[in-house]
Every structure is written in structure tokens, then in C-alpha cells.
Amino acid sequence: MSFIESLGFIQYPIWIVLILMLVQIGRATADQFRSSGAPPAGLRIHSVLVLGALAACLGVLGSLVGVWLAAEAISRAGEVNAGLAWGGIQVALGSSIVGFLILGVASIAWLALQYANGRRDAA
Q: How far apart are CA 71 and CA 32, in angstroms?
């Protein structure tokens, strides 16, 4: 099973949030290069960070559901090998990793867009 497949059902909302975030980054970047009469890109810039935080929350939700499902399977099986149990939990944590990576990208993009917006306003 690949890493992407191990994310389970929560991967679809995470990918949708990633696509929306990338679109907002593109739109906010385009706003930076428009004429000075254009409306400020503030809401678009802030929406990038909000979408990143939403991806992190979805990742944590996916991890919690995955740990719950792993715990349920372990309790039904009775005694299991510790390696098998931790393998299931490792798979469950994948969605948190992806969600926080998206949040990291969103944070860096937000900082860069805030900086560019501040420089444009100062000019």
C-alpha cells in the first residue's frame, strides 16, 4: 500500500483543500501585479492561511479516526503483535503529516504574500 492510499477516505477533502489553497495563492499573487487601483488582496491572502489550517485539522481528524479503527481492530483480535499494532497507528498518522505539510506551505505562502502586499502598500 502506498503512502497516498494509506491516507484513507480523509485524503479527498485534504486534496480539495490543497487545490483551493493553490488557487487562492495564484489569485493573490496575480492581485499583487495588478495596477494600484485594484482592490487589496487581504482576504485572499488570509484565506490561504485559513485553508492551510483546515487541512491540518482534517489531517488530525483522519489520524483520530485511523487510531480509533486500529484500536477497534486490536480489541476484536485480542492479543496481537506490538509491531502490527504500531504499524496500524503509523498508517493512521499519515493524514496528519500531509495536513501539517499543507499548513507549512500555506504559512510560507501567507508570509510571502503579506510581505509583498506590505511592500506594494508602502510604494
A: 49
